[in-house]
Amino acid sequence: MTQASMGxxxxxxxxxxxxxxxxxxxxxxxxxxxxxxxALPEPEPSADEGxxxxxxxxxxDGAEPGEGEPGGKAPVARPRLKVPRWEEAAREQTLAAVxxxxxxxxxxxxxxxxxxxxxxxxxxxxxxxxxxxxxxxxTTEYMVRQDFADYxxxxxxxxxxxxxxxxxxxxxxxxxxxxxxxxxxxEGIEWMVLTNGQIWQxxxxxxxxxxxxxxxxxxxxxxxxxxxxxxxxxxxxxxDSLKRRQIEEVWRHSAATAPELLxxxxxxxxxxxxxxxxxxxxTGTATSTDVLRQVIRTDLAQPKLLDRISS
Length: 311
What we know:
It contains 12 helices and 6 strands. The protein is α+β, with helices and mostly antiparallel strands. Strands 1-2-3-4-5-6 form a 6-stranded mixed sheet, sandwiched between helices. Strand 3, helix 5 and strand 4 form a beta-alpha-beta unit.
């Protein structure tokens, strides 16, 4: 994969059902940081982090297990997902913040507030809505070489992310991404956030030559989707969720289903050979994988997407 571009369709919306449920419902892994890039601190286990319940639940028709089954055989039990208390509280806090800050955000947008005023609101949202301690967890004007990042985010005193803020009317763009990417590369940090208060874009940086930057998710706090949907994504920036590395699951899935990667898979010889055989089965006409590859590249794939994959 190559570096993500701005305006990518939100990959989070494509999450499978197992990631659409509260993320604390399944134990999350704690892999090592990739390529020397800074990783989140190891979370301390807590007594209230619930496990997945093993009891069977009602079927879709409301029947008890075993009812209506041939020979009285019980259906396969489906686990009941138990949400840890900390996660339930964090999700409620995030949803309340999405609702509370909607009107102040609209007011800032209407008067075209400057970056400083936008930053004041973002500080309140981070502290009241996402659980950060203003003094222990946030460092404003964090110095990186001869420049300053708007926020350095710390968890257990370890720097884990940078947040770059633009005025609320400013459209986020590639130049802003390169700016926060420079901070992350210089400090060995893997998580980057771009925001103008209304739009929040979260990126992951994997170190190497070249570095790989993936858009993990984007949320528009003034957009038309339900508040619950906005909060379900913004939750992964909550202090308690970030501490437990839940965002890594979202990143891995978004990277695995990135359009450029999927196009590379489709254009691979094994997949094209399957397509060739299916075309012959349906039409009775023989063709070659080279012809199919050219048709896909010329007539089906978007030019911008083709530019982002290897030939």
